[in-house]
Amino acid sequence: MTVPTTGLLRVAIVEDQPLFRSMLEHTLSGTTGLQVVAAVGTVTEAARVLRPGSVDCVILDIDLPDGNGIALGVTLRRRTPTLGILLLSAHDAMDLLLDLPADVAAGWGYLSKTSSTSEEVLVNAVRAAAVGETVLDPALLARMTPRAGSDVARLTDRQYEVLRLLAAGLSNAGIGDRLGITEKSVQNHVNGMYATLGIDADPQRNPRVSAALKLLEETGPAT
């Protein structure tokens, strides 16, 4: 997936709570490079205004008054295969991403309304979804630990730290800044992580998406 060459990433918001929808619209409209082209509150309204090719990323509340945001996302993605989708929920339901149909599984992100999500995290998640990456809520990831015997449990502490930051939507440069290491060191950790997780270099699959989903699949709440 690629962001259009117009220079503006077009975003739509489907959120039934008027105040939260207004806050999202205000935040994103004030962000350089983003343009909010629609902000609606129901599946019916979204189906009416979101024409194929009209947006690059859509933010979807999972629980809508007349339907389900995930089902809407699947429908919209099949109409526009390059569409990025960012799910919002008041519940911890990240594992729903593991049940997406294979033909639409890339380019979905998940943020919790109840976590300490910042404007930076929100904007990064929108941008990442628009280019086909999978971004998971960093606050929720911080509460997860690898399952015993899993591939993720075999990662070094540094590789696991890099994986969580990658899954939260940070670039290699961003991960380096966060950890105080060079971008080259980050890439070395990423390569080692991919090898341990069995993620190949198939050009048809985004390895960062595969790594994020592997993290989601092989971790659980800390006890």
Can you describe what's shown?
The protein has 223 residues and is α/β, with parallel strands linked by helices. Helix content is 41%, strand content 17%. It is built from nine helices and nine strands. The chain has helices at 18-29, 43-49, 69-79, 119-130, 138-141, 157-167, 172-179, 183-197, 207-217, and strands at 9-14, 34-40, 57-61, 63-64, 67-68, 84-89, 108-112, 144-146, 219-221. The strands form three sheets. It has a five-stranded parallel beta sheet with strand order 2-1-3-6-7, with helices on both faces. It is globular. The N and C termini lie far apart (38 Å). It comes from Cellulomonas humilata. This is DNA-binding NarL/FixJ family response regulator. Keywords: DNA-binding, Phosphoprotein, Transcription, Transcription regulation. The modification 4-aspartylphosphate is found at residue 61. Residues 10-128 form the Response regulatory domain.
Mean pLDDT: 89
Low-confidence stretches: 1-5
Count of individual helical segments? 9
How many β-strand stretches?
Answer: 9
Largest sheet, spatial ordering of strands: 2-1-3-6-7
GO molecular function, one term: DNA binding
Modified residues (4-aspartylphosphate): 61
Keywords: DNA-binding, Phosphoprotein, Transcription, Transcription regulation
Protein name: DNA-binding NarL/FixJ family response regulator
